[in-house]
Structure formats: structure tokens, C-alpha cells
Amino acid sequence: MKTFKVSFLFLLQLILIYTAGAQISKKQDSVGYYYYKILDPQNYNEFNRALQFYLKTVDEALVSKDTLKAIENLRLIAIGQT
Where does residue 31 rank: exposed (0-12), middle (13-18), buried (19+ CB within 10 A)? Predict the structure, then answer.
């Protein structure tokens, strides 16, 4: 019975780590996708969606008081607009 409890807790931890990792990779995938869309847009709609994404991340960073992340994203927006 004790080994069953230990195995169950181990399995539960693995599931929680896996789901947390999937959420993080999804966020990174969006960042990478929009990074290339803002630097080399194929049309105006792609650029506009990337711009909206990065403006949203700037707002989120400012709300969480992460000014370095906000500056980094604003810099990327400025590079894309030139």
C-alpha cells in the first residue's frame, strides 16, 4: 500500500510538471512566432497582429512591474516600425 501511495504521488508530480511545461512552451511559441512576424511581415495584417501581441505583453509587463521586459518589447516594436 505504501508503494502505491509513493507511486501515485510521483505520477501526480510528473503530470503537473508536464502540464506546466506545456503552458510555458505555448507562450514561447507565440513570442517566437510574433517576433519573426514583426521583423519580417509579409503583409499589413501580420504586422498588425504582431504589434497588438507585443503591446499586450508590454501592458502585462507594466502591470506586473517588470519594466525591463516592457522596454525590451517596446524596443522590438520600434525596430519593427522602422
Answer: middle
Range of the domain at 43: 2-81
pTM assigned to the model: 0.63
pLDDT tens digits for range 24-52: 555 567 888 898 888 888 999 999 999 99
* Cα–Cα nearest to 36, from 6, 82, 80, 69: 80
Sequence-separated (6 or more) residues with CB below 8 Å from residue 39: 76, 79, 80
Q: What pLDDT is recorded for position 28? A: 60
Q: Which residues contact 31 (CB under 8 A, 6 or more apart)?
A: 57
How many Å is the maximal CA-CA distance in the chain?
A: 65
Count of domains in the chain? 1
